[in-house]
Design a protein that fits this description.
Oligomer: single chain
Protein name: Septation protein IspZ
Keywords: Cell membrane, Membrane, Transmembrane, Transmembrane helix
Number of domains: 2
Helix content: over 70%
Strand content: under 5%
GO cellular component, one term: plasma membrane
Radius of gyration: 20 Å
Shape: elongated
Organism: Bradyrhizobium commune
Length: 184
């Protein structure tokens, strides 16, 4: 679990840096410059340490640089704020692959209700697209406090709630099917 939080913090480090500096200084140019420099430094540090970097790491760096450049040229923070939406859209697109979620499920679920897992995979993809669209809508307002609330509470809460609902539904359905099979 600790590794998951470390990866999430690493993935969103440039957005966190940008937000923190912008909230403290109200200076878009400074916040963007430090966020871009931080993203580049993060990749250089990982390479020096010999860590294997994925395509998504380089794609994220490219996004920070491109969106950071647009933010600097326009002096408008909304471009940096929209970055997480691109990640949500990319993840949602990957989740459209049929049965992607089966490999993450225990055998009792994959053997009993694989069709529910497939449906859950598509529901997760839809959730990622909705969160991505919401991120763009909130970022377009330019309200940093609203954006921070949306990213941390709304988007994070929606994922936690979806996970909890999925857990309960799969548990109920598996239990029901196993009881029906035992009676038959």
């Amino acid at each position: 679990m600790k590794d998951i939080f470390a990866r999430l913090a690493s993935d969103f480090l440039s957005a966190i840096i940008f937000l923190a500096i912008y909230l403290v200084t109200d200076n878009v140019i400074l916040a963007t410059s430090v966020a871009v420099a931080g993203a580049i430094a993060q990749v250089i540090y990982a390479r020096v340490k010999g860590h294997q970097l994925s395509f998504m790491t380089y794609a994220s760096l490219a996004l920070v640089i491109v969106l950071g450049a647009v933010t600097l040229l326009t002096n408008d923070p909304r471009f940096m704020l929209a970055k997480p939406s691109i990640a949500h859209f990319a993840i949602g697109t990957i989740m459209l692959k049929r049965d992607w979620m089966l490999r993450y499920m225990p055998p009792i679920i994959t053997d009993t209700v694989p069709e529910y897992v497939t449906a859950a995979g598509y529901a997760w993809a839809a959730l990622m697209f909705v969160i991505g669209a919401g991120t763009i809508a909130v970022a377009s307002t330019g309200d940093l406090k609203l954006w921070a609330f949306y990213i941390s509470v709304v988007a994070g809460g929606a994922k936690i709630l979806a996970f909890a609902v999925q857990y309960v539904v799969l548990r109920v359905v598996v239990t029901s099917r196993r009881r029906a099979a035992a009676r038959a």
